[in-house]
Amino acid sequence: MKNDKFINIKCTKSTLLRTALLIVALINNCLTLCGHSVLPFDEEMVTQVISAAFTGVTSIMAWWKNNSFSEAAHKADSHLKELKDSKKVSAE
Q: Most CB within 10 Å of its CB: which of 4, 41, 71, 87?
């Protein structure tokens, strides 16, 4: 009789991707500790990539979120919040 617990494992694609990336990172770390440079990146390139990623993420966040600067925009935000809160109260 088979033990189906280990054969019928269900997981999402994102779980598999995260697991694979973790394995690659661990292998890379072990090889780096042993003195082998697996990834052909120098420190300057890593700094540039991190800086570009940070700029990209913050740009998207700033663009996506509602950024209210004027008095009218703040009043509209307050009104919208009141409407949402009243819907939550009536739903309960």
A: 41
pLDDT of residue 9: 64
Check whether residue 26 and residue 64 sit in a common domain.
no
Q: Are residues 28 and 56 in the same domain?
A: no
**Domain tally, the chain:** 2
What pTM did the predictor assign? Answer: 0.42
Name which of 42, 15, 13, 38 is nearest 28 in CA terms: 38
Do 86 and 46 share a structural domain?
yes
- Which tokens is 63 given? 């663009």
Distance (Å, whole) CA 22 – CA 41: 19
Amino acid (one-letter) located at 22: L
Distance, in Å, from the CA atom of 86 to the CA atom of 73, rounded to the nearest integer, reads: 20
